[in-house]
Amino acid sequence: MKNFSEKHRGLTAWFVYLLNMLLVSQLIALPILSMGASIETANAYGMALSSVLTLVYVIHKFKDTYQSALQKIKFPDVVLACSSGLAIRIVLTLLLFSVMTIPEPENQEVIQMMFENSTPLVMFFTVCIFAPIVEETLFRQVLIGDLEGRVPVWIMTIVSSVFFIMMHSGTDLKAGLLYATVTIPLVGVYRYYHNNVAMSISMHFVMNSLAFISMVAQSSM
């Protein structure tokens, strides 16, 4: 039973993630809406509360993976990886904006809507805790690390990157290019440190925390 569970943990984690995001979040939003909250507020809290369920499930299923990954990293490596990843993202973003104009992605508008209709604490959890842990586990560990040896790594690296970009940008090509500047350093640090999901989670946390601080600063102006 344990081997079966470990073998299929990625599939079940993806199922739980999509179920909570697409269905459970809406079911949670309904009673909040009935209490007089706006649709935007109900959706924001529905998404946040369903994210808690996903996060708990993913951490439970992958706790051994996290423990192993944490044992293999050192703080200086985390600092180097995060600073290098941020530098790469900045350079790629500047190059991208030097050749084309990119409108604000729809996903960013959704995040801004959630920020305006919830509390900073809720948004910190959603953006800085839930997203880094769950997304890096599903897109990097499940699609690349867990399939290594069964599917060529380069194929799953591409699949992981494309899925991650499309999940955030949909079919908007320009928005996809913008999210590619985030995806490349995240995938790069994961692979460079031998599929260490703790490293990519750390970088994702830093990137999203900076974005969160920016949103808080803008809202206070």
TrEMBL record:
Xref: Pfam families: Rce1-like
GO molecular function: endopeptidase activity
Regions crossing the membrane: 12-36, 42-59, 79-101, 121-139, 151-170, 176-193
Keywords attached to this entry: Hydrolase, Membrane, Protease, Transmembrane, Transmembrane helix
Domain CAAX prenyl protease 2/Lysostaphin resistance protein A-like stretches: 119-209
GO biological process per UniProt: CAAX-box protein maturation; proteolysis
Keyword check for Protease: yes
Taxonomy, superkingdom: Bacteria
Family listed: Belongs to the UPF0177 family.
Name this polypeptide is given: Membrane protease YdiL, CAAX protease family
Naturally occurring in which organism (per UniProt): Granulicatella balaenopterae
